[in-house]
Design goal:
By secondary structure, the protein is an all-alpha fold. The chain is built from 12 helices and no strands. Helix 7 runs antiparallel to helix 9.
Amino acid sequence: MGLSAGSVDTTQLATWRERYPRAFARTPRERAILLACGFALAAFVVFCLVRFDASPARIVNGMERFAKIAGALFPPTPGEAFWDLVKAMLESIGMAFLGTLIAAVIAVPLGFLGARNVLPIRLLRFPIRRSFDFLRGVDALVWALVYVRAVGLGPLAGVLAIATTDVGIFAKLFAEAIENVDRRQVEGVRAAGGNAVKTVRFGIVPQVLPIMLSNVLYMFESNTRSATILGIIGAGGIGFALSDRIRAHRWDEVGFIIIMIIVVVALIDFLSHLLRTRVIKAGGNRPLVLAEDTAASRAPEAQGVPR
């Protein structure tokens, strides 16, 4: 039976308010906490603005200079270095591809070692999982600075930086995917007499392979953008050419390079999206191997009856 506003008298309302105070309003303690959090957030914002010298005059002057630079970008022209810029762009794509591939190959066994259902011994699994956090916790830009000092200028430093960061990212994603597999398919392989290797091969890999490929394709598209930034600090590719043009104030070529980067990244994003969609659909259409089905298929053989 529903209650209307007219059917509730003041006495009942007062009784409910006393019995369920949080249903009508926040308690004084909750209001004080919210007020304190609001003041703390406002104080932190003000501190950051003052610490970073974000004065209105500085912002206005910066926007004026930015408008002049943006105007100098048009019309974008490659000058006489069109093919050099194309080669540099291909170099950045190669950096992203090679770094992603190396990271994926290394991360696959690490992902299995970091999965709870594959390596149940916590004492062994814990340092492996924490190594993932270390690798992905340091940005590729920092690794690139280290590798530039170690192996010198050029795309090799960019490849190593991308691979180092992506190993931690891939291994974590792969381990989580492996831990979330359907246990029925794994148990079905074990019921059929499969050992540990066959259980992984036929019970886990078919389920996680589409997810792994999807993550790799997405990171390849993301690493294409990262390769541009890495080139600015000396890792080669189109980023190095962009940094060189900015230092020389050749803004028309800078505009052309920016447009080239946007077009290439958009194209790679479109193609990787198509591939990810096909891979995910292929994985979703893959039939599961159930324990009951496996046992039923083995029953005729156990009785000596050919199937």
